[in-house]
């Protein structure tokens, strides 16, 4: 299946791998209202198709430079407030939709990653960055505050003190530092970024989708849960996984000394 808007493309192959592409490369994939709505439609399409994994990329030199300030500058007052609410409503609904799915998300980022672009990169489960990528929060530099989950993800990934350093100073950090502090999973050579991201997404596509979903939810919940209730949540999730088709296939494969075939088990819609 191939669909999308002029700003966001989505292609879902027969194996259940969804490739979501930001298509405003000439503008650094800056997020305007069309791109935000396109990302939401892509997220919803992934849910409808019950995909097994998502690969998020951006065309051009930069993954995403944040909000489209040229679009925003054409408005003022109440009109600007309403426009920004429309943009962030769509963008945030897209993030919620991806997060609620069982399918893990791989992001491949290059060039400049700023503002909401950091939010998209941070929201992914696995984020690969080209060696020459750079990251800057940018918001307070123009008198704005964060969106796209940046103020939620950054403290959890890099710690609150370091998050405030990045958010208040807007210092630009290279990919190597982003990997060292946990903002991205790892770095790769620029000419290998696409292939490595495809490899990572394909490996996840072949994996136990429902177990991935349960794991994603446990990790997210565990960040704010008390230990006792979280242990109960883990126990319930494990028991449900054990009696599922996915769990039975995994154990049978292990005992039979063969590779499991999770792809024959359809993911939850």
UniProtKB/TrEMBL annotation:
<dbReference type="InterPro" id="IPR001753">
    <property type="entry name" value="Enoyl-CoA_hydra/iso"/>
</dbReference>
<dbReference type="Pfam" id="PF00378">
    <property type="entry name" value="ECH_1"/>
</dbReference>
<keyword id="KW-0413">Isomerase</keyword>
<dbReference type="InterPro" id="IPR014748">
    <property type="entry name" value="Enoyl-CoA_hydra_C"/>
</dbReference>
<comment type="similarity">
    <text>Belongs to the enoyl-CoA hydratase/isomerase family.</text>
</comment>
<dbReference type="InterPro" id="IPR051683">
    <property type="entry name" value="Enoyl-CoA_Hydratase/Isomerase"/>
</dbReference>
<dbReference type="InterPro" id="IPR029045">
    <property type="entry name" value="ClpP/crotonase-like_dom_sf"/>
</dbReference>
<protein>
    <submittedName>
        <fullName>2-(1,2-epoxy-1,2-dihydrophenyl)acetyl-CoA isomerase</fullName>
        <ecNumber>5.3.3.18</ecNumber>
    </submittedName>
</protein>
<dbReference type="GO" id="GO:0016853">
    <property type="term" value="F:isomerase activity"/>
</dbReference>
């Amino acid at each position: 299946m191939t669909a999308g808007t002029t700003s966001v493309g989505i292609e879902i192959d027969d194996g259940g791998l969804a490739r979501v592409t930001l298509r405003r490369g000439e503008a650094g994939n800056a997020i305007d209202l069309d791109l935000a709505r396109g990302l939401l439609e892509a997220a919803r399409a992934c849910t409808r198709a019950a995909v097994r994994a998502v690969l998020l990329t951006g065309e051009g030199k930069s993954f995403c430079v944040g909000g489209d300030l040229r679009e925003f500058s054409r408005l003022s007052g109440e009109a600007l407030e309403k426009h920004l609410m429309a943009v962030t409503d769509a963008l945030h609904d897209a993030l919620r939709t991806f997060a609620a799915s069982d399918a893990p998300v791989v992001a491949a980022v290059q060039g400049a990653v700023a503002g909401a672009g950091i939010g998209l990169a941070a929201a992914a489960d696995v984020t690969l960055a080209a060696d020459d990528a750079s990251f800057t929060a940018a918001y307070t530099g123009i008198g704005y505050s964060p969106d796209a989950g940046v103020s939620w993800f950054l403290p959890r990934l890099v710690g609150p003190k370091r998050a405030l350093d990045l958010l208040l100073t807007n210092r630009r950090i290279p990919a190597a530092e982003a990997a060292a502090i946990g903002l991205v999973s790892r770095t790769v050579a620029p000419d290998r970024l696409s292939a490595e991201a495809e490899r990572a997404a394909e490996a996840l596509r072949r994996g136990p989708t429902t177990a991935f979903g349960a794991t994603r939810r446990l990790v997210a919940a565990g960040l704010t849960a008390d230990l006792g209730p979280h242990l109960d949540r883990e126990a319930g999730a494990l028991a449900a996984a054990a009696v599922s088709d996915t769990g039975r296939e995994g154990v049978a494969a292990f005992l039979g000394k063969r590779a499991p075939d999770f792809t024959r088990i359809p993911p939850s819609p």
